[in-house]
Design a protein that fits this description.
alpha/beta, globular, Rossmann fold, 6-stranded parallel sheet, 606 residues, 3 domains, 21 helices
């Protein structure tokens, strides 16, 4: 099917472009110039750990009235905070650490942000340049035996060592442009102590935020019209929203919803796109991917003639371990601002390299002026979707009101409180699967996952950074006991800076994802109660309380529902972290069957 040519012209109307403006600062140190640039970016918090080789920047932060230095318990946790801050605010996240172990400790958090295309600037200290090659404490150069700038080069979009003050403004500007570029990502600057203290006679600083943000290309109207016509004429269309559609849906979500309802086009999302489109809408089939919705899988499996992918590269999480079900789509439209991700999994018939927002805007505009091509098909599709949703609701297991607490109970009791301006930070592990499969999210509630690197312990720091960046929002971390033990010491950071974050911990006393995964792959050779992956039954309530948090133990169905209203109120009023330790049944199998099967069937070298 070839759609008719777009009857209107494609030339955009003329519009004035806002020019960048700058102010000149005189006689400031490199550290002070750096903070001036961060202030221009509207950054009001830097996360990290102090140390001798980052002291000039820390001293400048102590004197700065509008940027706080949030001192974490570990550099990795601080990097996760910078990540969460950037996701929650849309601004640059900043992490400052010392040389040597400070930089290497932060690396996992920085790499995690980078793979999820989160703009984070990491500043690591360095010994004075005149000490290079002398074996100075924490020297991080080739001569010192460990070159952290080169290490970061392999897990960021750019990593640079500053070796003289005059080049610093240029290198910083380049780093900021790269962090805000296409795709966004993490960047790193290594800053020697003597350079940080040197004075700059003059330095130009933007007077307004967004000076270094890239302007993404808008999609040609002809390509958007072609995509629209394909969807309009399709018998079984499907729109797939990835995390790259977040800005588009946050700004034009209501108009998008009107568009898909007018043409009765069902919508699925990736894990990271969860909740961009209301999961309570009858057109929402939920998450399509690992631990996703059975409705979405069934609809795709029944055959799709036009699949439109907005802002997802369809990696393993998003493609349900590269499921062959996707290959059955007759026509694939993929929209992404990064050309290299288009077609990396599926053969694409209509590639659109552009800002997803421009495509959504175009679909909405064309939808205003057009009617469905085949009203009978729309009625048939609506009936089919209603029947599909009803069948899956009827088939849903009824949770027992008595007996052990199951993770499904936790999701069911948490879900009613995920309303309004709530940000949920979901960690990696079994909690990822349960949240993806069971929760039903409606905007403006937002969900964030660290899927790129799949880093355990991420939410413990990310929720702190997110709450600091958006203090008016409710901030909840959903984590497992293994992740909680990894980075749970960041609770003391939340206590120290009066951050009222709420932590919901799934506590089964096991590294649950690997425990269930090995059990599934070994055909029962290793029982679930095998102590090999046991955590040793630590008292997580006392652990949390020892760090200054208010903690509660949840052991039965219904108890979380009773506690949550009071816990959420106390988090805001006391500005103190609240920890709900939910003792769940370790025997409950997480919704990872396809993932476990994919790992088990991976080809072995012979």
């Amino acid at each position: 099917m070839q759609p008719e040519p777009h009857p209107r012209g494609e030339e955009p109307s003329a519009a004035l472009v806002k020019l960048r403006s700058f102010q000149t600062l005189e006689d400031v140190t490199v550290a002070e110039a750096l903070l001036a640039h961060l202030e221009a970016e509207q950054v009001d918090a830097v996360f990290g750990i102090p140390g001798g080789n980052i002291a000039p920047l820390v001293q400048a932060l102590r004197r700065h009235s509008r940027i706080r230095f949030i001192i974490g318990s570990h550099e990795g946790g601080s990097a996760f905070m910078a990540d969460g801050y950037a996701r929650a605010t849309g601004r640059l996240g900043v992490c400052a650490v010392t040389a040597g172990p400070g930089a290497t400790n932060a690396m996992t958090g920085v790499a995690s942000a980078h793979l999820d295309q989160v703009p984070v600037l990491t500043l690591s200290g360095q010994v004075s340049t005149e000490r290079f090659g002398l074996g100075a404490i924490q020297e991080s150069t080739d001569e010192g035996g460990i070159n952290t700038a080169e290490m970061f080069r392999h897990c960021t979009a750019s990593s640079t060592s500053v070796v003289d003050a005059k080049s610093f403004p240029r290198l910083l500007e380049r780093a900021l442009k790269t962090a805000h570029g296409v795709p966004r990502g993490a960047v790193h600057l290594s800053l020697p102590t003597n350079i940080a203290r040197q004075k700059l006679a003059k330095v130009s600083v933007p007077t307004a935020p967004g000076a270094w943000k890239s302007t993404l290309p808008a999609a040609p109207a002809s390509e958007v019209f072609t995509a629209f016509e394909l969807l309009r004429h399709a018998k079984r269309p499907l729109i797939y929203l990835g995390s790259g559609a977040r800005e588009a849906l946050e700004s034009r979500g209501a108009e998008f919803a009107t568009f898909v309802r007018r043409f009765c086009i069902p919508v699925v999302t990736s894990l990271r796109g969860k909740g961009l489109f209301s999961e309570e809408d009858f057109l929402s089939l939920g998450v399509l991917g690992i631990a996703g919705s059975k409705r979405a899988e069934q609809y795709l499996g029944e055959g799709v003639d036009v699949l439109m992918v907005l802002g997802s590269r369809l990696g393993e999480w998003a493609s349900k371990s590269f499921s062959s079900l996707f290959q059955a789509a007759s026509t694939v439209i993929q929209v992404d601002a990064t050309p290299s991700v288009i077609g990396q999994f599926l053969q694409v018939n209509l590639p659109i390299v552009a800002d997803v927002s421009s495509v959504v805007a175009g679909l909405v505009e064309f939808g205003h002026d057009s009617a469905p091509a085949h009203e009978a098909q729309v009625r048939e599709r609506r009936q089919h979707l209603n029947a599909l949703n009803l069948a899956h609701r009827s088939a849903a297991a009824v949770l027992p009101e008595e007996g052990p607490l199951k993770p499904q109970h936790v999701m069911q009791e948490l879900n009613p409180h995920l309303r309004g301006n709530t940000d949920l930070y979901v960690d990696m592990g079994n909690c990822t699967g349960w949240a993806t499969h069971c929760l039903r999210i409606t905007p403006p509630t937002r969900v964030f996952y660290p899927c790129g690197l799949s880093s355990m312990g991420w939410s413990m720091g990310a929720v702190i950074g997110g709450k600091i960046g958006r203090p008016e929002n409710t901030a909840i971390a959903l984590t497992g006991d293994g992740s909680f033990l990894m980075n749970g010491t960041e609770l003391v950071t939340a206590v120290r800076y009066r951050v009222g974050a709420v932590y919901v911990v799934l506590n089964d006393n096991y590294l649950g994802m690997v425990n269930h995964g090995e059990h599934a792959q070994s055909a029962g050779e290793y029982p679930l109660d095998d102590p090999y992956f046991s955590l040793g039954n630590p008292d997580l309530v006392k652990f949390a309380e020892s760090l200054g948090a208010r903690a509660y133990e949840v052991t039965r169905p219904g108890q979380l529902s009773e506690l949550l209203p009071e816990v959420l109120r106390r988090a805001d009023e006391e500005r103190r972290p609240q920890v709900l330790v939910c003792r769940i049944d370790y025997r409950e199998v997480p919704p990872y069957g396809d993932r476990f099967a994919a790992v088990a069937s991976a080809p072995k070298e012979g």
